[in-house]
């Protein structure tokens, strides 16, 4: 086996793989060159050699930089964990040291989970100068494709749809909570169904037409008056500062918005389902030390959120 490796490796400069990893991360030849302390010409030349090595364009130009081809995404899945293992051997460290690492981790989640978890994540990384967190909008239906395209390192979503190549772990259970501004909508709590139906609602929905509340009410032969809709939970919560209406939000976000914006949080007057929030990642990075650290970071943020939810409800 060693003879095979020696024969094949003589055909390629393995330093090119470091350039490849930087291009995948930075999505820009200029930024990749800067990160590696190379000239832009040297980085462009390395990209040309990479294209010859793999027989693929690998990266196509866009207005903002470059985008990986499907072949590049498949290569990245295999190369990045391998580079981490090689780094551990060369430096005599097979663990990820967040205190000294220079790394951007990209998380995919919707804004309700961002509101619930990002404050805990930022507090945990505040004293890690080389660690940067980036968040991209993701849903249960988009997160697996985003992982496969290399757009995010880790997804955090409710009931993610995924395939055999992905791994997932449940973080916490959540449900639904009503929020309103008691200064302009002085409702008594617990909210009765009559009061719930008598006042206007803000809807959070991807299609802007209906949500789970509408489905549950329709099953009872009931309806509510929706005066506006938005695709963002935070957007609905912010409108309650001046709009005398109700919004029914995921509990993990409702508690954050209520505390920050001075809203009242109350249980809905009709039974609503619980659901699990989970992390999801590609199976090829399961044992990567940096990814293990990231998942533990998110696990701890979720644990803190579970404590808060138990204390308030």
Oligomer: single chain
SSE string: HHHHEEHEHEHEEEHEHEHEHEEH
- In what order do the strands lie side by side in the largest sheet? 4-3-5-12-6
- Helix % is 40-55%
How many β-strand runs? 12
Integer average pLDDT: 88
Q: What does the radius of gyration come to? A: 24 Å
Strand count, sense and barrel status of the largest sheet are: 5 strands, mixed
**Low-confidence residue ranges:** none
Q: Please tally the helical runs, counting DSSP H or I stretches of 4 or more residues.
A: 12
C-alpha termini separation:
59 Å
The SS-based structural class is: alpha/beta
Q: How much of the polypeptide forms β-strand, as a percent range?
A: 15-25%
- What does the overall shape look like? elongated
What distinguishing features does this structure have?
five-stranded mixed β-sheet; alpha/beta; 12 helices; 313 residues; 45% helix
What does the model show?
The chain has 313 residues and is of the alpha/beta class. It is built from 12 helices and 12 strands. The strands form 3 sheets. It has a 5-stranded mixed sheet with strand order 4-3-5-12-6. It has a 5-stranded mixed sheet with strand order 9-8-10-7-11, with helices on one face. A two-stranded antiparallel sheet has the order 1-2. Strand 1 (59-61) and strand 2 (66-68) form a beta hairpin. Helix 6 (111-125) crosses helix 12 (289-312) and helix 10 packs parallel to helix 11.
List the SSEs and their pairings:
Elements: H1 2-9, H2 15-26, H3 29-35, H4 40-54, E1 59-61, E2 66-68, H5 70-90, E3 103-108, H6 111-125, E4 131-136, H7 143-148, E5 154-158, E6 166-174, E7 176-180, H8 193-198, E8 201-204, H9 212-219, E9 226-230, H10 233-239, E10 246-250, H11 251-261, E11 264-266, E12 275-282, H12 289-312
Parallel strand pairs: 3-4, 3-5, 8-9, 8-10
Antiparallel strand pairs: 1-2, 5-12, 6-12, 7-10, 7-11
Helix pairs in contact: 2-3, 2-4, 2-5, 3-4, 6-11, 6-12, 10-11
